[in-house]
Amino acid sequence: MPEALQPVGAWLLQHTYLVVFVGALIDATGIPFPGRLILVAAGAFAARGDVDAIVVMLLGAAGVALTDHLWYFAGAVGADRLLRLFCRFTLNSELCPRRTADWFERYGSLTIVLGRFMAGVRLLAWPLARAHGVSYPTFALYDAAASLLWSAVWVGLGWFLGEHALDAVGDAGWIGFAVVGAGIVAVLGLRLWRRARQRREPANA
After folding, report:
1. What is the rounded CA–CA span in Å between residue 16 and residue 67?
2. 202 inside domain
3. Segments in 28-128 forming alpha helices (H)
4. Between these two residues, 135 and 29, which has the higher pLDDT value?
5. Domain interval for residue 14
6. Residue 204 in domain
7. What is the DSSP letter of 173?
8. Does residue 80 lie within any of the structural domains?
9. How many domains does the chain have?
10. Residue 27: what pLDDT?
11. In a domain, 8, yes or no
12. What is the pTM of this model?
């Protein structure tokens, strides 16, 4: 890893598990974010014995799965309207929903697995999955398998590439800002959770 980014790498190593979870969660929203590169770096750390590869893989899968579930239930509160608006400005307002329907007609519930690796499919299909006959238990099962596979691919890549993966991640440059951003979100979230817990404890006493 370039010398300029070594402090970022050290910080990521110290907070790997938390940053992996938050980074994967953000990555699954569709926002341009290098959550996969964070998993690759974590996989390289695991190859050195600094962190547990299984824990990293599970946390990465949990992060994307949580966001996936939010997308799924968003369809019940009218998020499909936002998606149609998104289609209107980016693709074609008529073809966009039709293409989503084609995916479900062609692949059925396997769309949940395939879409995990294609953001263009995932962002449109998840909120509309229920309308296309994908029940929540089915979605949860397929999404769990897809999330584990997705996380394992990127962690495994980092594991096999080792130090070369860290050099490649470092060469990306902007990964440092992403890691810091994910860390800030993670720390703030943890502090808010602790405050909420402290407030509940006197009330339960």
Report:
1. 20
2. no
3. 35-47, 53-74, 79-90, 95-107, 111-115, 119-125
4. 135
5. 3-197
6. no
7. S
8. yes
9. 1
10. 85
11. yes
12. 0.70
